[in-house]
Amino acid sequence: MNKAQSDHPEVVTLPEDFDAFYQREFRSVVALAYALSGSRIAAEDLAQEAFIAAHQQWDRVGRYEAPGAWVRRVVSNKSVSLFRKRTSEAKALARVALRRQSPLPEVGEPSDEFWGMVRDLPRRQSQAVALHYLEDRPIAEVAQILECSESTAKVHLHKARKTLAKRLENVDRDLI
Amino acid sequence: MTIDERARQAARDLNQAVAQADLMLLEAGVPGEREVAQRVNRRSRSLVFAGGFAVVLLVVAIALVPGRVYSPDAPETNDPVANSTPILTPDDGTPDSTPSDTAPAVDDPDTTDPTIDLSAPELTISFPEDGAVFEGADDRAITFRGTVDPGSEVIAAGLYNATVNPNGTWFISLIIGPGDNVTSFVAVDEDGLETEKTITVTYIPDQPEVTSTTEVPGEEPGGDGGPADTPDADVTFSASAIYKESAESPPFDVYEGTATPGATISVTSEYGNDTTVADEDGQWRIRVVFNEAPPGETFLVTVRDELTERELKFGFTNLNES
Fold first, then answer.
1. Which of B69, B166, B176, B251 is 20 to 30 A from B38, comparing alpha carbons?
2. Are B36 and A168 within 8 A, CB to CB?
3. CB spacing of B158 vs A151 below 8 angstroms
């Protein structure tokens, strides 16, 4: 608590400026959507939809301790839904066709292959991996975003690592 | 390359790709809040228009998938194109009620899509009851039982997989420690959705240490005529983990206990091993370093009395994120 707050404990918390929030968070949320949806075309739209939702409820969302967690939770759930991914991809394709907007660049191998394996994991495991590694978030923050206990988040990460290690081992052996 | 290194490399590559992207709303510099709002709303309209185009592309797919609704409340419908176009708005399911500012609950955005089962698995613990008390050495190994949705896994204490029968009943035997034992059980279904339940059971030991009568392989219990270094029939082996987690670099734990004097005690795990010998009083203590333990991961450490072949298992978590 800063000094102003301690001197005036009755002060009402104002929502963070949406502009600043958007500028700070948008690109990393796009990256999260990209990792979890696997679609270079739909990722930006998935992130946009999450920010639109945040903007429409900003009086409330902006007062949360971590509005970034809220947006990430929304985009994580959207991105792992096959239907939504396809719908957003179709809309984005239409937008590209109409506006000639370029999609995101390709990630390139072997990282693209790695994210493909992440997307093949159960949805909660893939979300935990993306949040932990892509955004370098500690277990506690992953748990907060996924709305689960830290022990559950650890279990998701543990199982994901085991599965990924086994699949990567098979891939590497095939390459030899 | 370890899985952590591989993951971090993949994360760098993906972040780099996004950093190079010419994202639509960032291309014109830093706008004011009102301008962002206008852009977001314009973007909503463009999505609506593009969505109409998408209907043509995906008419069959969309027609087959229920849960999409016509929404007359789509944002900013002054756009004549938007007004004249039926709006297929994915029910984004974003939260509209939150019980706490510090821990905002979010309705799963997918809950309106009936093609996906989003209900967390049902989990019950039928034995023991929450708050149960067990006494005596014979009551230290508890078989926890319950039911879960068939096809789900049940993970105890964040580490141990219970046996789940096809009909959904599950069980797992755990050795509880003296005092209160808060044990969590997490049911994880095939979609990765989970339900967690926690119960507390209390163990009141007869003695402060684990004591057992152990037969030495190849010897008659209590028999005579064996080799000079044959241990007594009554062998006490105990072990305890001091920390069970570490934020140090490198991470380590300390194990200690009792055993037959001269007995070799080995500590083994996926990320570190070591051995020691019980002293003439039967006391032993060992510090084990887990150099390669992945941050945040809990793994199993086995402490084994090589003489009696008895062993105890402990969990260890590396809390060092660096």
1. B69
2. no
3. yes
Give me the torsion for CA of B134, B136, B137, B143, rounded to 10°.
Answer: -20
Predicted model pTM = 0.42
Q: What is the pLDDT of residues B68-103, one digit of tens each?
A: 322 333 333 333 323 322 222 223 334 333 333 333
How many whole angstroms separate alpha carbon B235 and alpha carbon B70?
75
For an interface test with B, the pick among A23, A100, A111 (most B C-beta atoms closer than 10 Å) comes out as A111
Q: Which residues from A are below 8 Å from B40, CB to CB?
A: 48, 51-52, 55
Local structure of B235: helix, strand or coil: strand
Rounded to 5, what percent of chain A is helix, strand, coil? 75, 0, 25
pLDDT tens digit string along B238-289? Answer: 888 877 777 777 888 888 888 888 899 999 998 899 999 998 888 899 999 9
pLDDT score at B118: 53
Can you point out the beta strands (E) in B205-309? 212-213, 234-235, 238-241, 245-246, 252-258, 264-269, 274-277, 283-289, 298-305
Q: Between chains, do A102 and B22 touch, taking CB under 8 Å as contact?
A: yes
Pick from A145-154, B20-29, B34-43, B125-134: least confident: B34-43
Q: For chain B, what's the residue count?
A: 322
Quick one: pLDDT at residue A3?
37
Assembly ipTM: 0.76
Residue range A134-145: mean pLDDT, rounded: 88
Query: pLDDT (tens digit, 9 = 90+) per residue, A72-106?
Result: 988 888 777 655 555 555 655 555 554 445 567 77
Q: Which residues of B touch A54 (CB under 8 A)?
A: 94
Q: How far is A24 from chain B (nearest CA, A)?
A: 11
Backbone angles phi, psi at A93, to 5 degrees: -60, -40
Contact A111 B14 (CB under 8 A): yes
SS3 A167: helix
3-state secondary structure at position B53? helix
pLDDT at A91: 58
CB contact under 8 A, B58 and A168: no
Q: How many CB atoms within 10 Å of residue A80?
A: 25
Q: Residue A63: which of B30, B101, B191 has the nearest Cβ?
A: B101
